[in-house]
Specification:
The chain is mostly helical. It folds into 2 domains: 71-273, no CATH class; 274-310, no CATH class. 57% of the residues lie in helices and 0% in strands. The N and C termini lie far apart (152 Å).
Length: 310
């Protein structure tokens, strides 16, 4: 077994034949230059952040209070600036929404003005159809040339718009507007919605009334059942047209002068409404009606209030 120390190399020694004159001395300047070259430059050193201790220590409650007040004031300033920015942003949104609603209202005003004129013509057209169909019912098989008129089925109304109002609700801008303004807008667009619904009903009734034309447009060939179907469809179309007119009149009640060209007298002529409540010859039955209604609770409303003077 080999000796463990035999593998250890001997300590390093200078050769015996190397004298002091053989070692070349290094000039001090050269050593300094070497060390300077080895040292890292300022560019190689990464910048370092320095942490400073507080300039002053908080020694008493007064200093603590001043410190807290400074923090609170800073927070209040930051919150105030943020709220100021939000305030002007909200005002800008409300101003934009109001302008969009104004333009939409003007467009609807122009459309309803044309609509009011169209309702008068459509009413006249439907009354004409009822006259022709009623004659045909009494004289079935009459040649078209001998009838007191022709049947016309037209709808001249246009679509109203509610895009600006829908956008204002979806973006929650209405929450930034005065409640009274929002209520007035909601009432206006409620009228618009009812007018459009009545117009849709009118269009469907109009098409039901002229179903006969899909088989045979010659009126002299209509059966009694087809004539009755056309009369029923015409009456439903008149009812829908009446509701359109009533709603347009109601728009003027809530927003005076918004729509011109239609008044309650025009609307009441559709179902042939007469002023029975002021007819002195009907004083006795009017009094009985008033008594029945008042028994349910007195209130000033659209019902008769007193019998007409004889």
């Amino acid at each position: 077994m080999a000796d463990r120390d035999s593998n250890v190399p001997p300590p390093f020694q200078l050769p015996d034949n190397l004298g002091a004159s053989d070692v070349e001395p290094v000039p001090p300047e050269s050593t300094a230059r070497s060390l300077h070259a080895m040292a890292p430059s300022k560019e190689d050193l990464a910048p370092m952040l320095e942490a400073h201790a507080p300039h002053e220590a908080i020694h008493n409650w007064k200093d603590f209070t001043i410190h807290i007040v400074a923090i609170v004031v800073g927070l209040l300033i930051a919150v105030g600036l943020e709220q100021t920015v939000e305030f002007f942003h909200d005002r800008h949104e409300v101003a934009q929404t109001r302008e969009a609603l104004r333009l939409e209202r003007e467009q609807n005003r122009n459309d309803l003005a044309r609509w009011a004129i169209a309702i008068r013509r459509e009413q006249a057209s439907l009354n004409n159809n009822l006259l022709v169909l009623s004659y045909l019912k009494l004289h079935p098989g009459t040649a078209q040339a001998l009838l007191p008129g022709i049947l016309t089925w037209h709808s001249a109304t246009s679509n109203l718009t509610t895009a600006a109002w829908s956008t204002a609700q979806q973006t929650l801008v209405t929450g930034l507007m005065p409640a009274s303004e929002v209520r007035a807008l909601a009432r206006f667009y409620r009228h618009i919605s009812l007018i459009e619904k009545s117009n849709d009903d009118y269009w469907r009734a109009l098409n039901e009334a002229r179903l006969y034309a899909f088989r045979d447009p010659d009126l002299s060939h209509l059966s009694p059942a087809q004539i009755d179907q056309a009369i029923d469809g015409t009456l439903r179309a008149l009812e829908s047209l009446y509701l359109e007119g009533v709603t347009i009149v109601n728009v003027n009640d809530d927003f005076p002068g918004f729509v011109a060209g239609l008044n309650p007298a025009d609307i009441n002529s559709m179902p042939h409404v007469t002023d029975t409540e002021s007819n002195s010859s009907l004083a006795a039955p009017i009094a009985e009606t008033i008594q029945r209604i008042d028994a349910a609770g007195k209130q000033k409303d659209f019902f008769p209030q007193a019998p007409p003077a004889g």
